[in-house]
Amino acid sequence: MSETNDWLKNQLGQLKEGEPSFINRSILTATKALADEQDKRIRQAQDEIDGRIWSPDKW
Amino acid sequence: MKTLILISHPKLADSATQEFLKTAGKSQANVDFEYIDDLYKGTKIDVIQQQRQLTKYSRIIFQFPMYWYSSPASLKQYMDDVFTRKFVVADHLLRNKELGIVVTLGDAEAEFQAGGGEHFTISELLRPFEAFANKAGMTYLKPFVVNQFGYLEEDQKELLLVNYLQYVSAVMPLNLDNREKWLVDRLTKMKQEKSEADQQKLNLIIGSIEAQQDQIDDLKVNIKMIRDQEE
User: Fold this and answer.
1) Statement to judge: residues B52 and B145 lie in one domain
2) Membrane-spanning regions, if any (chain B) (predicted)?
3) Which residues of chain B have pLDDT under 70?
4) Which residues of B touch A29 (CB under 8 A)?
5) What is the ipTM, given to two decimal places?
6) Is the CB of residue A12 less than 8 Å from the CB of residue A3?
7) Alpha carbon of A52: minimum distance to chain B alpha carbons (Å)
8) DSSP three-state, residue A3
9) Assessment of whether the complete model's pTM goes beyond 0.90
């Protein structure tokens, strides 16, 4: 997990702690889930680029 | 974009699921609710007024508990009365609108498949609504299924709430890009009711989410370029 994502989730967690509205808490939880998904997509995309650039077919 | 949610439920007041969805939906701008069962209490339904109302919305949602593999009777009655041939087929007044279905189940959704206890899929059972959307020239949205609400944990309810709000109000399809835009919009609105310190936090969060999305878009472009060169 990237540092940005750690930081993002920490900030979202802090906001959620002081949040009385269930709807707003839900929005913050969904934002956390989205950040995780973005993080995963970035990692996978970078891995794919590495894989394709270093493909043995091109050696 | 405006959404009308038509709820068909003979025992609305007793339903925790419907109460949950209604409270959620009311927090969303440009989403209106109509209780079909109320329209049939006492007076005769005003077909022209209902038709006029429908034309104001670009997304129409039928929301109901599944009763014997279909909707409760009030939705069928409403469709028979309001969706006249002239309104739907001759004048094409529903054309290019979206039709969504929010269906709640008492049984596990996993049973609705070949080999499962219910044997048939939700898509198969809801086919008459899909056929109607097709005839009316509407875009049929993937049905939104809520199953066994009573067994959900707190964090599952939170995610259900947001998924539901996105289903009724976000731009379709619900891909990462559109979900991100929807969340950024809601976070921006949330800011208005917050202290200055929290507003700053939210600004940084929004900035970071948007930057990550831009990064994903850039990576996609690069991957496409590399793939295209390979093939």
Assistant:
1) yes
2) none
3) 231
4) 155, 158-159, 162
5) 0.91
6) no
7) 7
8) helix
9) yes
